[in-house]
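Structure, all two chains, one model.
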Amino acid sequence: MQQNHTQLADDSYFAAVTNAIRTETTKLLSEGTVAAVIGYQAGTRAGTVIPTIITDAAKAGDLVFSPGCVNNLALYLTKAKKEVRPAGKVAIIAKGCDMRALAGLLGESQLKREELHIIGVACVGVKGAGAGSGEALTTGTIARKCRECTVRAPEGADVVVGAVPPLPEFSPVEAEELARLEAMTPAERWAFWKGHFSRCIRCMACRQVCPFCYCEQCLCDRNRPQALETTPRPAGNMAWHIVRAMHLAGRCAGCTECERACPMDIPLNLLNRKMARELKTLYDFEAGLVPVEKGPLTEYREEDDQSFIK
Amino acid sequence: MTKTITEQKLRSLMDLLLKEGRRVVAPRQAGSIVLYEPIDSGEQLVLGIMPRRSAKETFFPLCETILTYGKDGNGVMVSDVDAGAFPETILVGAPPCDAAAPAVLDAVFSWDYNDEFFLERRKKTIIIGLACTAADDACFCTAVGLSPRDDKGSDLFLTPVAGGGYLCDAVTKKGKVFLDTYASFLAGGEAKPLPSAEPAATPLDLAGIKDWLESNFESPLWQEFADRCAGCGACAFLCPVCHCFDIVDEGTETKGARRKSWDACGFGKFTNHASGHNPRDIQNKRYRNRIMHKFKYYQDKFGQTLCTGCGRCVRSCPVGIDIRAVLEEIQAKP
């Protein structure tokens, strides 16, 4: 059945955000407030963008904001990208979901707030998997995460650009999928993930785009001793994805870059979300809301549940 | 005389090949995507959709065991894998950008060492290519010397015809023998081929690009091209001709295997030396290697370009790096 999809924001919304970003960038760079602005510029295919780092105010006009601005640019502020991060204060374009990653990175002492100028975008949403590069942002093409976004108006930015137009109610596709998984028997869930992980080729795109995968020595690359099998086989694939989910528990702020980057369409955010839900239930903790020094899995408190110690 | 085959007959032919004990590898639904996988019946064959990964894994699997070892009270046993036991295989439904790739790889896998795993599979595989009737905005086979109806690398070549079915042309002797063997599935007569796909790509000046690469190992452009590169292996792993691999021993003290699996020059550890020194210590040096290998080194060594223009790297790059834009920028340099 052909569904009718509504366009979510007209071009004027994106044009306004784009203009505001350019104006802010020009000001910041010409006044010398920041050394660089990390943003998006148009990609080669219609509707696509590429991350860019601008240091010259004259290039501010290259920056854009569109439904194709999927990347979480916080990646470029991490230790993993230290070779490209300009020295000094840096401005970054951040959607609400990206800001949660920034909050997490601040909490983990990876960033200093005073070295950041956050240009928050009041965000309608970006396009999801399967949307053609030229397609508009509609109720049909919007990313799964954006259907359940709670941070369209980002808090804690130095400046917020754009105004979100009224949006329709979205069915929570991902929450429904997670509920379906939780209702499965362990054997069914095992089969579900076994099927998905069988496609994993260990290209590590999920790790490389993750703002929280900044370890200089990833456990999964170790070979003396080998922590887990690096070859794309069932045992190593399962181990890798479990390690990834566990290491991100209480840290992942739900930008879903891992899932977006996966060339094999593995629904990795279901794992992230499950872990986030566990953290909420067990510790009443939600990652990325405010910078916190330590997450629940890296902190010990006397009142912590110890019943599992037998 | 031109031969044709209906889609149903093509599927029945696959069924027969399977019944005869052949391995048939074809585009097949795998979860939400299409991959080249061994099929169990002709019905599973998905035609006209470009699989997410290339066909190279038919010859060069993601991971394969090259020897196994064991140790017990009597000593150590090491067993080689018998490449001679690899099954006769039919690779069917490969578009020209995939069908042309194995022949490009023959050069490196039989260069200073004959890689029996690759070469044995090559010897035992018949490639049935399929002309493309649809291109997307990442396709660029026409920019690197191929075309949507190029039969290079195919033993047999199928061209979709108006009203369904395919023209079926033998390209090699191997293909001719195959066609004669299964002639009962074919019909004669004329049929009108469907219009070819038309990738929006203009031919690249590969010689000019190579010239620039010769003298620009150190260029600030590499930084511009690759600062954004996240350092994953999606481009290399999906590429039909990227062929770097790693060899690891996995197992315990008493039992295990030596395995060969895909590697990627984008990975930070790719050239990490045991000493700790890494000659490609930053991402743009790694990206430079990717371009150098494809458009200079492989040309120097084998006179071929290591790219068939399938566009998978363009589609899969999480940060939107477009190899065409990089090459066009290089081409525009003096």
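DSSP finds eleven helices and eleven strands in chain B.
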